[in-house]
C-alpha cells in the first residue's frame, strides 16, 4: 500500500510518512503570527552623519510622525550618542522604535577618533544582550533588545567623493551593523551630478573594502525587487514634513523659488525606495542579520576571549562543563601563584622595614650618647664658673670688712665734716658698684 511506503533522507535516520487525515499543525504559521503580534516588534536605527544633514527630518518623514528632539549645534566637544525610544502603533501591530543619533559627529577639528564612541555604543548593546543570555534565569522574551538593526549613513551631497571620515567610520562599522548609505539633501546637486556621485561612492566603497548591507535575493518573493534596489544604492533622499497641495492632493514636498521637490515622487528622489526596502520589505531580514551575523560574531569573539571553544586541540568536541572546569583550575592556579607572590613580597617588605627600624634605632642611641656627653661637659663648665664666682664673693666680703674697719678708724682720728661726707659717699658708690657686679656675675652663672 502507498500508505506504508517510507522515504528516508540521505545521511539521516529520518523517515517521511504520509498522514491519513488532517492533524492541525499547519496552523503553526498562524500561531507564530498571532504570538508575534501580541508581543510586538522592536526596531533600532542608528543615524550617522554630520550635523545639519537632515537626519531628524528624514526619520520624521519615514515614520510619518513628529519625533521629539531639539536641533543639535556645531559646538559639541566630542561625539555623543543620543537614544530615544518610541511606541508606534499601525493597525493592530505595535512597534517599539529606537532612534540613535550621533550628535556632534564631524564637528571637531581633529576627527581621528570620531568613530570610537559609535563603535563603543554598538558593542555595549551587544554586551548587554550577551550578559542577559548568560544569566541563569533569562528573560529574553521580555528583554528590550537595544542592538542596532540598521545604520543609515548620511553622506553630504558634495558631488565629488566620500570624505576620509566617512570611509574610516564605515570601515569600522561594517562588521558590527547593517550599513545602508544614503545621500542626504540630494536636491542640492543636479541629476547628472547625482548619477556620477553614486558611481563614485560605490567605487570608493568597493576599493576600500567597505561591506554595506545588500538586500537579500535568496527569497523568490523579494528577489527581483531587492536585486533591482541593490543597483540603486546609495539612495539619494530628501526629507520633509511639510505638506503642499499639488494638483488635487496634498503631498510632502519642499518648496523652492524655482519649483517644488516632492518627497514621494521617485522621479525626484529615492525616498520611496528607501522606505520600501527599510520598512516594508526587509525590516525582518535586518533584524535577523543583526542577530545571526553581527551579534554572533561579537559573541564568538567574546567567548573565545573568555577561553570557551567548540573543539579541543585534537579537534574533538569540547563541552562547556570541561571548559568551565579548565578555566576554573587555571584561575585557581593563577590565584595561588599571586597569593604566593604577594606573601613573598610582604615578607621581603617586612624584613626591609625591620632593617630600616633597627638602623634608625641605632642612630637614635648614638645621638642620645652625644647629647648626654655634651650635657655633662656643659654642667662641668657651669660648676667651675660657680666656684670661681664664690671665690670672688668671699674676696669681696673681706675687702668690704677691711674698708669698714678703715672707715671706723678714720672717724675716730677726727676730720672735717665735709671730708667725712665725701668718704661716706665714695664708700657707698664703691659698695653699690660691687653689689651690681655681684648680681651680674650671678646672672651670668645662672
Automatic annotation (TrEMBL):
Residues 404-429 are annotated as: Disordered. One of its GO terms (cellular component) is cell projection. GO terms for molecular function: GTP binding. It is found in: Cell projection; Cytoplasm, Cytoskeleton. Residues 407-417 have a biased composition (Low complexity). Residues 39-305 form the Septin-type G domain. InterPro entries: G_SEPTIN_dom, P-loop_NTPase, Septin. It comes from the Eukaryota. Residues 419-429 have a biased composition (Basic and acidic residues). Residues 321-399 form a coiled coil. Keywords: Cell projection, Coiled coil, Cytoplasm, Cytoskeleton, GTP-binding, Nucleotide-binding. It holds the Pfam family Septin. Filament-forming cytoskeletal GTPase. Septins polymerize into heterooligomeric protein complexes that form filaments. Belongs to the TRAFAC class TrmE-Era-EngA-EngB-Septin-like GTPase superfamily. Septin GTPase family. This is Septin. The lineage of its organism: Eukaryota, Metazoa, Chordata, Craniata, Vertebrata. The gene is SEPT6.
Amino acid at each position: 500500500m502507498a500508505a506504508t511506503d517510507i522515504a528516508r533522507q540521505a545521511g539521516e535516520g529520518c523517515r517521511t510518512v504520509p498522514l491519513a487525515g488532517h492533524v492541525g499543525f499547519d496552523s503553526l504559521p498562524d500561531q507564530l503570527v498571532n504570538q508575534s503580534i501580541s508581543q510586538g516588534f522592536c526596531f533600532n536605527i542608528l543615524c550617522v552623519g554630520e550635523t545639519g544633514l537632515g537626519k531628524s527630518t528624514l526619520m520624521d518623514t519615514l515614520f510619518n510622525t513628529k519625533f521629539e528632539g531639539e536641533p543639535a549645534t556645531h559646538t559639541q566637544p566630542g561625539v555623543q550618542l543620543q537614544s530615544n525610544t518610541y511606541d508606534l502603533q499601525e493597525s493592530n501591530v505595535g512597534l517599539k522604535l529606537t532612534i540613535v543619533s550621533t550628535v556632534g559627529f564631524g564637528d571637531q577639528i581633529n576627527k581621528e577618533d570620531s568613530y570610537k564612541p559609535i563603535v563603543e555604543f554598538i558593542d555595549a548593546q551587544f554586551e548587554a544582550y550577551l550578559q542577559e543570555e548568560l544569566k541563569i534565569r533569562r528573560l529574553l522574551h521580555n528583554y528590550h533588545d537595544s542592538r542596532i538593526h540598521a545604520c543609515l549613513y548620511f553622506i553630504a551631497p558634495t558631488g565629488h567623493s566620500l570624505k576620509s571620515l566617512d570611509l574610516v567610520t564605515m570601515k569600522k562599522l561594517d562588521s558590527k551593523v547593517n550599513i545602508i548609505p544614503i545621500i542626504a539633501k540630494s536636491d542640492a546637486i543636479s541629476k547628472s551630478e547625482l548619477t556620477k556621485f553614486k558611481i563614485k561612492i560605490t567605487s570608493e566603497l568597493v576599493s576600500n573594502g567597505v561591506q554595506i548591507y545588500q538586500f537579500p535575493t535568496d527569497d523568490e518573493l523579494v528577489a527581483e525587487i531587492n536585486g533591482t534596489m541593490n543597483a540603486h544604492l546609495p539612495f539619494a533622499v530628501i526629507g520633509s514634513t511639510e505638506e503642499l497641495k499639488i494638483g488635487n492632493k496634498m503631498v510632502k514636498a519642499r518648496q523652492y523659488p524655482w519649483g517644488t521637490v516632492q518627497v514621494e515622487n521617485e522621479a525626484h528622489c529615492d525616498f520611496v525606495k528607501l522606505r520600501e526596502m527599510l520598512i516594508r520589505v526587509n525590516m525582518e531580514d535586518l533584524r535577523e542579520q543583526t542577530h545571526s551575523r553581527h551579534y554572533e560574531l561579537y559573541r564568538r569573539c567574546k567567548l573565545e576571549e573568555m577561553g570557551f571553544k567548540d573543539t579541543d586541540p585534537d579537534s574533538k568536541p569540547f563541552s562547556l562543563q570541561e571548559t568551565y572546569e579548565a578555566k576554573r583550575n587555571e584561575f585557581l592556579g593563577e590565584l595561588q601563584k599571586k597569593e604566593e607572590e604577594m606573601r613573598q613580597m610582604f615578607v621581603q617588605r617586612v624584613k626591609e622595614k625591620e632593617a630600616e627600624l633597627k638602623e634608625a634605632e641605632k642612630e637614635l642611641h648614638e645621638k642620645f650618647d652625644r647629647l648626654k656627653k655634651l650635657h655633662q661637659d656643659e654642667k662641668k663648665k657651669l660648676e667651675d664658673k660657680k666656684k670661681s664666682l664664690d671665690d670672688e664673693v668671699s674676696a669681696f666680703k673681706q675687702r668690704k670688712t677691711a674698708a669698714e674697719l678703715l672707715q671706723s678708724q678714720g672717724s675716730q682720728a677726727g676730720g672735717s665734716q665735709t671730708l667725712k661726707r665725701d668718704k661716706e659717699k665714695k664708700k657707698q658708690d664703691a659698695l653699690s658698684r660691687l653689689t651690681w657686679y655681684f648680681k651680674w656675675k650671678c646672672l651670668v652663672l645662672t
